[in-house]
Amino acid sequence: MAPIAIAPFQTTSELTHSGIKHTITKTAPSIITNGNSTIINELDASKLVFTRNLSPRAVPEPDSPEVWTQSVCTDHMLTCQWTSTSGWGVPHLQPYGPLQLMPTASVLHYATECFEGLKLYRGHDLKLRLFRPNCNTRRMLNSATRIALPAFDPDELQNLIEALVAVEGEKWLPKSRPGTFLYLRPTMIATAAALGVQKPKEALLYIIACCFPSFDTPSGTAGPGGETVQQSSKARPGLKLLASKEDTVRAWPGGFGYAKVGANYGPSLIAQGEAKARGFDQVLWLLGKNCEVTEAGASNFFVVWRTSGGKLQLVTAPLDDKVILDGVTRRSVLQLARERLGGDLEIVERKYTMSDVEVAAAEGRLLEAFAAGTAFFIAPVHSIHFRGEDLEIPMSEGSTGKYTAILKTYLMNIMYGREKDHQWSVVVDEKQLDA
Q: N6-(pyridoxal phosphate)lysine-modified residues are where (predicted)?
């Protein structure tokens, strides 16, 4: 098993940091010692047991109304139980179906739940690929240990993800549909049937694969009945964002905004739903009296502007205050921009405010903006509603900005295999199941 360091941004306090280290030592000591554990059973993908689904369902058409419900999952899912007394059990690749929980389960009362989001791609070369899954599995370790769930070797979690998609890929991403994807959701929940406010003593890891529509196209939303709202030739391009007010906060410095836990998302849904009811695509989350720009919905947010001195910059909020998620797409955008566009763009991670954005727009220095995340991918932003005014964002390429389009193309070429043998692209050998 490969060692993994505790992420620096986990050290929110001495007490929390110490607790995280203790959790790792007790539940997955091998990721600290870089050796096999004889103390307790750790997560082990080599023990996987497969039970085939004998009642498979039909695969829906891409972007069909059924897909837009975001509830159609593949035939199988992966599960693995953990207890504080025996550690991780045998992983099971089994038919997709409901989970059994007691009403007193910790997850139902104390939000002891974390998850990840990544995609499986059917490349244009007809191969199956995952995009930087090691980033997702390591981030999930950080999220799990932040809320007292058990630790695991991230490489073993990646092996389990690959086992699931190797079985599901051939049917659910057929070779007749290159350029399509499935959304993957690894999740961990505390399942112990006790109401006491305490560290969980039982947990369930599960991984599902879901049919998802493409959200990165302009005006990509679903109608009230789940039907797709397609963009017409007269539809506005890009996302329309509603900036949050000072009395609405998604995450705060020193908190757990960096962790992908359910407690970060549920409280934001009321504002998100109201924004959509008013005709906006996402909330642009601001922080504090200075209106610091943080995230757009559940995605990271970027602007491209010229400084007052004429320097061209790609700017996004920093990770230092633990307010925003260390997005895999965010990380990839920054790295590709530094490697390939560094001669044109200065890449900046710093705090900036809506006032900075307004001034840049008024002076003609604001060139483009986009949201970046797994679900929405790279989505250009058309406008931001802030303090009663609509701030229009230039779209130099018609439906997107120049650098937004360039970065999106870079990423798509890696994800779908047009850029051969890139280190971020993990090819999965699919398994054929007998009819």
A: 260
Summarize pLDDT for 31-43 with one digit per residue, the tens.
887 665 567 899 9
Tokens (6 digits) for 52: 């085939």
Residue 294 and residue 387 in one domain: yes
State how far the Cα of 128 lies from the Cα of 120, in Å rounded to an integer.
7
Task: Note the pLDDT tens digit of each residue in 150-185.
Answer: 999 999 999 999 999 999 999 999 999 999 999 999
Supply the CATH number for residue 255's domain: 3.20.10.10
Shared domain for 133 and 204, answered yes or no, is yes
Q: Of 210, 226, 255, which closes a domain?
A: 210
Q: What is the dihedral of CA 365, 301, 142, 265, to 10 degrees?
A: 150
- Domain for residue 431, yes or no? no
pLDDT of res. 34: 66
Q: Which residue has the higher pLDDT, 243 or 434?
A: 243
* Within-domain flag for 354: yes
User: β-pairing, 180-190 with 113-115?
Assistant: antiparallel
264 and 329 both lie in a single domain:
yes
Q: How far is CA 105 from CA 114, 152, 198, 435, in A?
A: 15, 21, 12, 39
Residue type for position 227: E
Say if residue 354's pLDDT is above 80: yes
